[in-house]
Amino acid sequence: MTRILLSDKLDNCVARWRKAGLTVIGPVKKETSSSYAAVEKAADFDFGIVLPDCSIKGLFFPQTEPMTGYTIKKQDIVTNDFAPPAEKRIIFGARPCDASGLAIDDPLFGWDYKDDFWFQRRNETVIVTIACTKADNFCMCTSLKLAPDSTKGSDVLLRPLQNNKGWLVEELTDRGREAFKEIADLLQDGSEQAAPLAVVPEKFNLDACVAWLKNPENFDSTFWKEISMRCIGCGSCTFLCPTCHCFDFQDEGDTYSGIRRKNWDSCSFSLFTMHTSGHNPRSTQSARWRQRIMHKFNYFPGKFSVNSCSGCGRCTRQCPVDMGITETLQAISTLKP
Amino acid sequence: MKIVDRRDEAPGVRTLKLEFQNPADHEHFKQTFRTGMFGLYGVYGEGESTFCVASPETRKDYIECTFRQSGRVTSVLASADIGDLITYRGPYGNRFPIENFYGKNLIFVSGGIALPPTRSVIWSCLDQREKFGKVTIVYGARTVADLVYKHELEEWEKRDDVDLVLTVDPGGESPDWKHRVGFVPTVLEQAAPSPDNCIAVICGPPIMIKFTLISLKKLGFDETNVYTTLENRMKCGVGKCGRCNVGSVYVCKEGPVFTAAEVSRMPQADL
């Protein structure tokens, strides 16, 4: 016997959670794009989306966020630090790759200086993941040793039922159990089978790629130039990536008052590492693409013991010049370590 | 922090002397600052810039920072007046382990605007001169005018417990220039400091560091006795924002001070 949540009860669940003070967020389609956004009723969800265009990263690490407000007076500077917002949220219908992305970035935001903005949101957000029964040609979670039903980063995992009328409920964390207490009476026992998971073929051999990347001789390989020749450095891959976390500080305002903000930045941009003197450690697009791949599969795991990629495939799916991690790692798989 | 003094070092290069406004911040600085660390100095409305703390760990009543006016933030900092307030975060990063240098000879090699970080170490050592052996300073700039801390160069030149070797790039000498003419690595090789019981501290533009490391190797210095500081572009200073990375190294956390042995393990093309 397992617990089951039927789709027709979902509207009730959304109402309960909202009444309990939670902002309910889920996959939503808007005209030409899709994302994770706040909903008011179950009908707002679109569970047919294989993967929303934008990852859930932005809900924890927003594209732009105020850090400090300032007012400059004659002999004084008055500042007010913005606190991370105290908002309890439930994300219903996250994809396993997106939830994994959050878990991957936790050690980065937690080592040394602890980023309160990230962790406050992490602690106050319940993540209900729905296992994937559909995948597209760009999905590659299995290549990253994850799966369409990975539980990494999730508080509750739902498996769609074979009859498509609801989900099997697997509560994974206390935070998840707490949120589902709210709707305990709306769940029921059942013996229905879960629908088969999406088939995501392995696209490359990760271990072979990592071995090649770890060999210092390959750092200067001509491979990097060839594979990144058509990169236009737009940064889309980094912005859509559920794990890319580089940022910039910018002041918005004038000499008298304004806000110091934290904004997404991208290692694909030529100004990212440019010194004042004009010296640029990563002066070519190929050096920047190499940094992105090395960082994800060599440097980051070296430091935090996890690859900085959850296999969502957005970098490839939405690249304007049809590049991406998949192509690069597929090519590396065929090279001698 | 409040600007309590300012000084022009060279065309476009200025030093600001800063005092803490908040006693708790000052106490934190006194407790944590060691030579080699850096800070983020800024002006609200413009942003922040990363410079080393140019004053030594033996003088913690104030902070001195020296910078070249070249961008948005440094232009505003350069036009700031005595009494003006600027923002400061820090100190961040690691340090030169000068207690490991006790009893050893020291050679400082520096170029252009990179004297400020070296100067912090130099004074940290000169303020407890008896603990070190022979002290040699090799400093060069493009032109005579571009030499920074001219008043301190004069002071070091007069001291008989410091050997100062000054040089300017060929073509940068003035008619009354009495010192060397030549690039820093060449002049260093001519000065030929003995690697025995000697620690080298080098700081300069990436190209100077690269060739100075080669020269020191030629002179017989062991890579573990050569220290340098990598001044990469930074924003957060606390190991998050990603831009100072060289390979897997966060320069802001694990650096900016590295031994030449550590630098040689980094991907050279990304330096």
Indicate the percent of residues in helices of chain B.
Answer: 25-40%
Separation of the first and last Cα atoms of chain B:
32 Å
pLDDT averaged over residues of chain A? 94
Biggest interface reads:
A-B, 48 and 34 residues
CATH class of the largest domain in chain B: Alpha Beta
**Kindly state the mean pLDDT of chain B as a whole number?**
94
- SSE order of chain B, as H and E? EEHEEEHEEHEHEEHEHEHEH
Query: What's the number of extended β-strand segments of chain B?
Result: 13
Unreliable spans of chain A are: none
If you had to describe this structure to a student in words, what would you say it looks like?
- The complex is a heterodimer of chains A (337) and B (271).
- Chain A has 337 residues and is of the alpha+beta class.
- Chain A has one domain (2-333).
- Chain A is 29% helix and 23% strand.
- In chain A, strands 3-2-6-7-8-9-1-10 form an eight-stranded mixed sheet. In chain A, strands 5-4-12-11 form a four-stranded antiparallel sheet, with no helix packed on it.
- The longest helix of chain A has 20 residues, at 285-304.
- Chain A is globular and about 65 Å long.
- By secondary structure, chain B is α/β, with parallel strands linked by helices.
- Chain B folds into two domains: 2-92, Elongation Factor Tu (Ef-tu), domain 3 (Beta Barrel); 98-229, Nucleotide-binding domain of ferredoxin-NADP reductase (FNR) module (Rossmann fold, 3-Layer(aba) Sandwich), CATH 3.40.50.80.
- Chain B has eight helices and 13 strands.
- Chain B has helices at residues 23-32, 72-79, 115-126, 150-158, 184-191, 206-218, 251-254, 260-264; strands spanning 2-10, 13-19, 38-43, 47-52, 63-68, 87-92, 105-111, 135-141, 163-168, 180-181, 198-203, 226-229, 257-259.
- In chain B, the strands form three sheets. In chain B, strands 10-9-8-7-11-12-13 form a seven-stranded mixed sheet, with helices on both faces. Chain B has a three-stranded antiparallel sheet with strand order 1-2-5, with no helix packed on it.
- In chain B, strand 8, helix 4 and strand 9 form a beta-alpha-beta unit.
- In chain B, helix 5 (184-191) runs parallel beside helix 6 (206-218).
- Chain B is globular and about 50 Å long.
- Chain B starts with a strand and ends in a 7-residue tail after the last helix.
- The mean pLDDT of chain B is 94.
- Chain A binds chain B through residues 70, 72, 75-77, 79, 108-109, 111-113, 115, 216, 219-220, 245-251, 253-256, 258, 260, 265, 267, 272-277, 279, 281-282, 287, 291, 294-295, 298-300, 302-303, and chain B through 44-49, 68, 70-71, 74, 85, 87, 205-206, 231-233, 235-236, 238-243, 245-248, 253, 267, 269-271.
